[in-house]
Q: What sequence folds into this?
């Protein structure tokens, strides 16, 4: 997988007027400015279940006006965070998740809030965030928890070739932000299928350290200015990644973890982190955007 370098594919942000979406606009605007990309702000106006009535037309006009109002509010946020960023405001009709998934086919990245309008901060990730993360055609960042502007980028390294996109996007983002990178590989004794003594545990830990070093070697050569901390941890993968992301600016994961099946669009670890991570989560995919 190669991180796209051309500047024609925009960064798309879903806008619905919620606090969560406002945070997504701020994060997307800063990245778009740094990457010299257009920031495409998209609001989805829901279809009405009936048509042809006078009240329906008034309601549709009101929704249309409200949609543009929310887009212009989002544009103000974007210009406040990233003065000079190029904007493209778009009002589409349809289910928000469906609209954003369609937008993702020609996007460099999609950024969404973890909760839509009316969502509560303490609740789990909303249906739109989960759907776009599962079915999106490009990397999807779900903005949740706390954004630590000076924090590191954390990446989950599962040790498989399928996990390479997450490593590449994490190195690329750390280099872009001038941030440290914490590469975390988590293993569990149950993976071995054996009851482990101390000597066996130490030997397996050593094997996992070697595996992590092998997975990072080429990327550290490509990004020599990125300071990397390697961590091999034991335990539940999602829990340990959340622990190391407590003050991170971004957590990067693949759509499927170690042992994931190709037919599964979103693995249990990614799904759990979209609900419980303490910071924004980027789900990295192999698909490159249409230029």
A:
């Amino acid at each position: 997988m190669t991180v796209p370098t051309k500047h024609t594919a925009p960064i798309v942000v879903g806008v619905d007027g919620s606090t969560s979406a406002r945070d997504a606009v701020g994060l997307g605007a800063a990245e778009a400015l740094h990457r010299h990309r257009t920031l495409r702000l998209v609001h989805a106006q829901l279809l009405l279940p009936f048509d042809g009535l006078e009240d329906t037309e008034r309601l549709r006009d009101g929704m249309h006006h409200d949609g543009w109002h929310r887009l212009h509010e989002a544009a103000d946020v974007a210009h406040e965070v990233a003065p000079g960023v190029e904007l493209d405001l778009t009002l589409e009709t349809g289910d928000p998740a469906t609209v954003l998934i369609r937008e993702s086919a020609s996007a460099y990245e999609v950024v969404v809030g973890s909760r839509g309008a009316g969502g509560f901060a303490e609740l789990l990730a909303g249906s739109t965030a989960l759907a776009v993360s599962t079915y999106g055609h490009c990397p999807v960042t779900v903005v949740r928890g706390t954004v630590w502007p000076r924090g590191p980028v954390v990446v989950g390294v599962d040790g498989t070739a399928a996990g390479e996109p997450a490593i590449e996007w994490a190195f690329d983002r750390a280099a872009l932000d001038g941030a440290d990178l914490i590469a975390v590989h988590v293993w569990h004794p149950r993976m071995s299928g054996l009851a482990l003594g101390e000597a066996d545990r130490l030997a397996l830990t050593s094997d996992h350290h070697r595996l992590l070093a092998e997975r990072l070697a080429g990327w550290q050569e490509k990004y020599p200015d990125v300071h990397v901390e390697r961590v091999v941890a034991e335990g539940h993968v999602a829990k340990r990644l959340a622990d190391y992301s407590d003050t991170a600016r971004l957590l990067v994961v693949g759509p499927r973890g170690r042992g994931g099946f190709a037919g599964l669009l979103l693995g249990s670890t990614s799904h759990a982190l979209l609900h419980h991570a303490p910071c924004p989560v980027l789900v990295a995919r192999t698909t490159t955007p249409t230029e």
